[in-house]
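User: tokens in, sequence out, please.
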């Protein structure tokens, strides 16, 4: 069994090379922009299909945030291409982001998307939010039978970008343009104010 510790927030995302629907790809080629790297249990599955359609429809909104999309499934490249073609034919949606193949589950296991003891990929529905330096800034994991929210993925990228300098914090449900919070160290200078521990200010 692989004894590598699981990836955590703040770790550098391990580089890899793989075949994809956009040709051979390396994770490191996305350096310089934000990246949402997401995995799926298998092609031609209902929850995955709804996620792919929604992600494709929101691709322009991710691009506006300077964020690329990269999908992964254990199925073969030929299966990926057939699934993408079926999505276009059934839903009229073109999947423009690359989808890599991981038949050996090597990438999934390296990223902790699959338990080392698992015999298949049923546990895969993870998302890694990676900054332009290749550092993992957030991780979400869902069970195979619950779909992710693309709106929340977009919100996560925007919130991570807003809070990237550690000079502000984003409150619950924060959306771009809304007030942000001051870290305790910055707010402590006005300790006499009743709201010193939860001071909201205009977003930078």
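Assistant: Sequence out:
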């Amino acid at each position: 069994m692989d004894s590598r510790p699981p990836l955590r927030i703040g770790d550098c995302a391990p580089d890899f090379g793989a075949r994809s629907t956009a040709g051979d790809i390396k994770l490191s080629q996305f350096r310089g922009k934000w990246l949402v790297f997401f995995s799926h249990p298998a092609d031609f599955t209902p929850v995955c299909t709804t996620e792919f359609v929604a992600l494709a429809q929101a691709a322009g909104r991710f691009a506006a945030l300077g964020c690329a999309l990269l999908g992964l499934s254990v199925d073969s490249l030929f299966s990926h291409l057939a699934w993408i073609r079926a999505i276009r034919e059934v839903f009229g949606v073109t999947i423009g982001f690359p989808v890599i193949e991981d038949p050996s589950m090597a990438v999934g296991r390296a990223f902790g998307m699959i338990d080392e003891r698992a015999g298949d990929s049923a546990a895969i529905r993870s998302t890694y939010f990676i900054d332009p330096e290749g550092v993992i800034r957030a991780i979400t994991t869902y069970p195979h039978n619950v779909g992710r929210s693309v709106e929340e993925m977009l919100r996560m990228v925007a919130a991570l970008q807003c809070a990237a300098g550690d000079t502000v914090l984003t409150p619950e449900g924060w959306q771009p343009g809304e007030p942000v919070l001051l870290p305790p160290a910055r707010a402590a200078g006005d300790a006499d104010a009743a709201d010193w521990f939860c001071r909201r200010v205009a977003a930078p």
